[in-house]
Design a protein that fits this description.
The chain has 125 residues and is mainly α. The protein has one domain. The protein contains six helices and no strands. The longest helix is centred in the last third of the chain and has 26 residues, at 99-124. The chain is elongated, with a radius of gyration of 15 Å. It starts with a helix and ends with a helix.
Length: 125
């Protein structure tokens, strides 16, 4: 396991961005959609910081994880865990299912794959 400083820096910047969105924006497109778009990129960068894994494989794993969390919201996971009034749990796991969240996650992962593909193409030339 080696530390990738580029991905770690991106992780930190994305995390700060997500925190600022959570603190200062309580509604709207940036809070509800762009934040979901960024969160999959954040998770991808976090794991790439510490694990040497093929980007496509990690991207699919992150997308699957995001979809699982979103579909658990249909089952009202927070209520099942008696965390429906816990702000942090609601922030991390979400509290309501939205198809638009699935679209945002997918677009975030597509963005990651486009950037990763271009980076690899530049390294080969």
């Amino acid at each position: 396991m080696t530390l990738n400083k580029t991905y770690l820096t991106l992780t930190i910047l994305l995390f700060i961005t997500e925190v600022l969105i959570a603190i200062f924006l309580k509604s709207g497109f940036i809070r509800h959609t762009f934040g979901d778009y960024l969160v999959v990129i954040l998770i991808f960068c976090f794991f790439k910081s510490f694990i040497n894994i093929k980007s496509f494989k990690l991207a699919l794993l992150v997308l699957a994880f995001a979809f699982i969390i979103e579909f658990l919201q249909l089952a009202n996971l927070l209520k099942l865990l008696n965390l429906q009034n816990n702000y942090l749990a609601k922030l991390v796991l979400g509290s309501t299912f939205h198809v638009s969240d699935l679209v945002a996650y997918t677009l975030g992962i597509i963005t990651v794959l486009i950037i990763e593909t271009r980076m690899w193409a530049k390294k080969k030339t």
